[in-house]
Specification:
The protein has helices at about 10-30, 35-55, 55-65, 70-80, 120-125, 135-150, 165-170, 175-185, 200-205, 225-235, 240-245, 250-255, 275-295, 300-310, and strands at about 80-85, 100-105, 110-115, 155-160, 190-200, 215, 220-225, 265. The protein is an alpha/beta fold. It has 2 domains: about 10-55, no CATH class; about 60-310, 2-enoyl-CoA Hydratase, Chain A, domain 1, CATH 3.90.226.
């Protein structure tokens, strides 16, 4: 059994296995089973389409956390050319939970920064499961200020459960580091595009998320905290996470409707991990299009529009 499967994906897996068995039996016995295999493949595609068109918020949470989902490093290698990684915050150390550097997008030099989860247990431990310390956010800010100095657009990739909340991180100023990034990103005089590629959680995501344009993958999530944390705080019961996900408006579709994000990039049926290269090409096409628009905007107007964008979030009218 594939341990990356969510419960709702098991019927699809079972049917895939059945098709595989039929193919092996047909080969070993010499019996022509092509008609039966074709019927099963058509039924599988129909079931897959129905399943992924009607996902619940909790099911999207599960997909966003799939360990096989392409991470920031994958997109750095497949969206940008000539990427050079830069290290360290020049104050404490290099935090591997944040990866960043310089590359080019269709010939345009850009600074790219993102949360980086590991690809296996050892790598996840090394990268703290994508949960950055203060020095990670200070590294990100150093690269952003460098980008501003050399007039390079900034692209960020968001994929983290949240900022690390351990004692050491708090001692070194986790809250201040995140708050400083929010403040500084609001006034950077270069275009900023943020892409939520997986799990966008809490201040750890927001520290890379103050952008002119926010893009989300179809099955990514973006929220103030995890559904487990929400349930634990609101109901004192983390086991009600599935119920909490339904209340939180954390899906790309919810956030587009609320005008918190600007665009959704579609994923292959089954999620980004089923065809990572196709997903990367979709992100690249969207980034190129949106970056071309932003690069033609006057710098002062760019900052004013960014300010107005965030002032409008959460605005409401009181009707007496």
């Amino acid at each position: 059994m594939n341990h990356n499967l969510a419960d709702f994906e098991k019927p699809l897996f079972d049917m895939e296995q059945k098709i595989k068995e039929f193919k092996e039996l047909s080969q070993s016995s010499g019996i022509d089973m092509s008609r039966e295999i074709l019927m099963l493949e058509e039924k599988l595609q129909e079931l897959r389409n129905d399943t992924y068109k009607n996902l619940t918020p909790w099911q999207k949470v599960q997909i966003s956390r799939n360990s096989k989902r392409p991470n920031t490093r994958f997109y750095l290698d497949h969206v940008f050319c000539d990427f050079i990684e830069l290290h360290g915050d020049r104050a404490y150390k290099d935090d591997k939970a944040i990866i960043g550097g310089i590359g080019s997008l269709d010939g345009v030099p850009v600074t790219v920064i993102g949360n980086q989860k590991g690809i296996d247990i050892k790598d996840n431990v090394d990268r703290n499961f994508g949960m950055a310390h203060p020095e990670g956010y200070r590294k990100a800010l150093r690269l952003m200020k460098q980008a501003e100095k050399f007039n390079r657009p900034i692209i960020t990739f968001i994929d983290t459960p949240g900022a690390y909340c351990g004692i050491g991180a708090e001692e070194r100023g986790q809250g201040e580091a995140i708050a400083t990034n929010l403040m500084e990103m609001a006034t950077l005089k270069v275009p900023i595009i943020a892409v939520v590629i997986g799990e966008g959680g809490s201040g750890g995501a927001l520290a890379l998320g103050v952008a002119d344009h926010i893009i989300m993958l179809e099955h990514a999530i973006y929220s103030i905290l995890s559904p487990e944390g929400f349930a634990a705080i609101l109901w004192k019961d983390g086991k009600r996470a599935q119920e909490a996900a339904g209340f939180m408006k954390l899906t790309a579709q919810d956030l587009l409707e609320l005008k918190i994000i600007d665009k959704i990039v579609g994923e292959p049926s089954g999620g980004a991990h089923t065809d990572a290269l196709k997903t990367a090409l979709s992100i690249k096409a969207t980034l190129s299009k949106e970056l071309n628009k932003l690069m033609n905007v006057d710098k002062e107007l760019l900052i004013n529009q960014r300010y107005d964008k965030y002032r409008k979030i959460g605005a409401f009218e009181q009707i007496s």
